[in-house]
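Shipment paperwork, digital attachment
Item: protein structure file
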Amino acid sequence: MISTFKKYPGKSISIIFLAIGTFILMQFFLPLASFQIWEISQNVNNQTLISPKNANSVLGISVQNKDNFPTFISSRIREIQPSYNIFTLSVPKLKIEKNNVFVDSNDLAKGLVHLPGSALPGEKGNIFISGHSALSRFFAGQNAPFGKLPELKKGDEIIIEAANNKYVYKVIETKAVSPSDLSVIPAPDTQGRYISLMTCVPPGLNLKRLIVLGKMI
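Attachment content:
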C-alpha cells in the first residue's frame, strides 16, 4: 500500500477523496432510503393514527417558518402555571435517559420542548413533545435526541418524571404526516392520558413529521 502510494500519489489521493465523498453521500441517502422502507411498512400494516375528536383544541396553535423550517407555535397561556418548568423523558428502547423537556416552550434550540398549552404529565389530554432528529441516526446525540425515534414500535415504553412522580406510557401508534398537519396535537379522546413525540423524517431532513403516540398504562 505504501509503495503504491509513493508510485501513484495523485491516484491514491483521488481514491481517498472518493471514499470520503461516498461516505458523506451515504449519510444522506441511507436515512432517506430507510425512511422510505419504514413508511411502506406502515402502509402495509394499515397503521392509522387515531383521529382527534375535538377540533377546537388546536386554537392558538399555528405553523410558522423559522429559518425556512416549519414549526408548531402555540400562543396558549395556562390559567394555572405548573410548579416546575422542566420534566424528564426516558425511552429505554432508544437509550434515552432522563432528557430534560422544557415546559410550555416553542424554542427547539433548547432541546426537547413541550408545546405550550398541551397536557402536563399525568393529566388527561395529550402531552406534545418535539425534538430534532439528525442527518444520520448513527450521529444522534444531545442535540438530536429524537434521531432514532423511527425505531419505536407498538408496546415500547415512554417514561415521564415530573414533580417526583413517574408516569409510564406505551406506544400505540406511529405515523408520518405533513409538517403543517395540526390534527396530531389534540388527544384522541377526552378521557385518556396520552403522549405524542414528534420529529422530522427522514432524519435530518424536513419532508414530513413522525408522530409517536403513547397512552398511559
